[in-house]
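Dear colleagues,

As part of the handover before I leave the project, I'm documenting each prediction I ran so the next person doesn't have to rerun anything. This entry is a single chain, and its sequence is reproduced below.
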Amino acid sequence: MFSSRKLLGTVSGIAVLAVLLANYAAPDPSGPHTTPSSAGTVTHTLLLDWLPNPDHSGIYVAQAENDFRKQGINVKVQTPSGTADAAKMISTGQIDLAISYEPDTIMAAAQGMKVQAVAALIPNVLSSLIITGKDRSVTDLKGMTIGNPGLATSLPTLNSVLAQNGMTESDVKNVSLSTGGVEPLLAGKVDAIFGYYSNVEGVQLAEQGDYTVLPFDKIGVPSFDELVLVANPDRLQSDSSYASFVRKTIAALKEGFASANADPDAAYDAIAPVAKGYDDTTLRNMVKATVPEYDNPQGFGSMDPKQWDSYAQWMHQNGLIDKPYKGRDAMTTEYLPD
């Protein structure tokens, strides 16, 4: 939801981003969303939510084990130029599929964008409040400087958490962070970071000292699907070949995520070449912390319409969306494997 999008590791964050984005070629808005390969088959695009990181291990395992090709499809994994790319580019048909988050998908759909979640890749909440010190709580935030990723959802969510603990925005100092949360926290520039991941920043910081990691659903935010696969609902209804591609992609990802969960070492091997800026040991620990989060008791990709409705209602009540919206309208389980 809030954190993979700004993962740059603990070293050379800006440099890493510059290198990766320099190599990123955004699709031509006037051009097709698919391109023919040399073999004459179509290559479809899958846009990540941010730079490759442990959350994406299942995707890269699917690539490494040829799960996409086994489904008869060619998939190009692409890095975005910004965190808002997914909804815009899916809605306009510039890309075929994208990785996003339940809150962002609801927000985009409520604003009229043509986006719809078709599978939950990580059904558990990873977004967290991380505070310097051991055994801290939300009430300790009073008077602290809090770093956040500066997203549209960041401050409204934080303000809701503060309000539930008898505080307001004026009781803390908010700082928008552009290159990740770990370095500012370690340097003492902020006392806490809000919206960063327990399985990534939480792991990095645990290696450096005492920090308290409080996942959002433990501090008053409703549970949500952290990482989802989004498609264009109009294309799903009007283009049978696109709908078939989506089904096959989800089937391939089901295999890749299951393999990653079953073999964290294989997941590490798949993500390590592309996840830049991390120490090898730290990255391996991150992957080990991540792959169990792929477990979905209802089956791979499953999403609960009632939970999406509930989260959308909470978003409206807390000012993240302007008007009431049925969360279930922003998701579908029609394309999941049997």
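DSSP finds 13 helices and eleven strands in the chain. The CA atoms of residues 191 and 322 lie 31 Å apart.

All the best with the project,
I.
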